[in-house]
Amino acid sequence: MFSVPALIKILIIFALVVLATAKHVHLGLAAAIGGVLIALWQGLGPGAIAVATVKELINPDLILLVVLLTGIMMFSSAMKKSGAMDTFSATIAEAAPSRRVALAVAPLLIGTLPMPGGAIISAPLVGAMNGDDTRSPETLAAVNYWFRHVLELIWPLFPAFILTAGLTKIPVPTLIGLNLYAPITVYFLGMIFILPKSKELSATTKNRAGKPNFSKVARGIAPLGIVLLSYIILDVLWEFVSPSLGMKPDSRSLIGRYGPVLLGLLIGSLYLIKIAGGPGIFKKCITHSTLELIGVIIGIRVFSALMSAADLAHAASTELASAGIPAIIVIALLPFISGIVTGVGLGYVGLSIPIVMGIISSSGTPFEAGIIIASAFGYAGMMFSPLHVCMVVTVQHFKSSLPLTIRKFALPLTIYLIIASAYGALLIALMR
Fold it and tell me: Distance between CA atoms of 364 and 104, rounded to whole angstroms?
């Protein structure tokens, strides 16, 4: 009997989920149903599916992610009510040479800190800077999502970068240097295809009264700056203190991911309460949109858990390796598939890089060149994935749709892969 390859199953189910969202089916519901269908197709019984689903629903990581995203939504709403959001966006707009640059810079700056679902912080800023309302919701969603991840492959604070360096033993400066082409390419492709030049007055023209003074800038960035600075300080303290506490690695990692940013949000919220004269700005901050977002996150995580329970990433990698496909193609495809399946940087690195390293060593491909190619394709898979939390929260915030948002950045991301492939081929030629 003909057996459908795991990769084909993944593509079919993904296509059905995306199609369902295009027909206005709730993304969380579509994802959860898609997860059940693919698990059944892969041979899991109802009991195994139920166990995997319940296990994910009580997963502390999911619970803390929901708490964090709820806190971020409440903080963003309070910033808007207090006027701090408008002040912050005006500060960036005045400092940037144009609104176009300001729209790119805001998510890029927020993206320097690896907060889970952190795109929801920059999304309101991007929306606030679209004061003339000339850009569509899908364009704003693509802008926020794309520029949030410009530094993904070179920023040493990102868990995926840290894991890549740890697994491959490539020195951090070397890994940054070899990947430096990526943020430059991604930034300019975004400016060309997602944020093309339009007829707008430059910030300097609009603000002939003078550049903002230090106190004005400080007031503008204070609420969000307090959150981010608190996060950095608390994260560094936790990394310094936690090894001596004798905690299990999983518990230590979980607290490290969520504790500093949650406390940072609390400190930032207390500052907002102080400048607003009371906690009234937090009234009715949990809206229907917040609850809808929580439903989406839960559905996405259930889908991801069922994909993992069905062992689809491993099955797809085994099929590719046994099909006699050239090593360099497998080195690119494995991370790409893992990125799509997991929707997170740690996913494509953790699932595929150990396998890719073995393929590189047995194929004679220069090690660093192979890792750079694998990282580029893993990044692209993660960016295309409808499981990526940043994409989900961004689409939800701007009331866009998944297919329209993906279509906005599909071309530049494809061009990036072509450039990355050419760069990888050059590295292979130079390193041999």
Answer: 40
Structure tokens at 186: 């991604």
The residue range of the domain holding 62 is 6-431
Asked if residue 1 is part of any domain, the answer here is: no
pLDDT tens readout for residues 128-157:
777 666 788 999 999 999 999 999 999 876
The CA-based diameter of the chain, rounded to the nearest angstrom, is 76
Angle between helices 288-309 and 60-82 (to 10 degrees): 150
In this prediction, the residues of the chain whose per-residue pLDDT falls under 50 are 1, 201-210
Which of these, 354, 351, 349, lies nearest to 376 by C-alpha position?
Answer: 349
- Tokens found for residue 329: 């193609």
Predicted structure pTM score: 0.71
Q: How many domains does the chain have?
A: 1
In sequence order, which residues have a C-beta less than 8 Å from that of residue 152 and are 6 or more positions away? 158, 160, 161, 182, 183, 345, 379
Q: What DSSP state is assigned to residue 282? A: G
How far is CA 144 from each of CA 31, 83, 116, 162, 267, rounded to the nearest angstrom? 23, 21, 15, 24, 25
Cα(329)–Cα(342) distance, rounded to whole angstroms?
20
| Structural domain includes residue 152 | yes
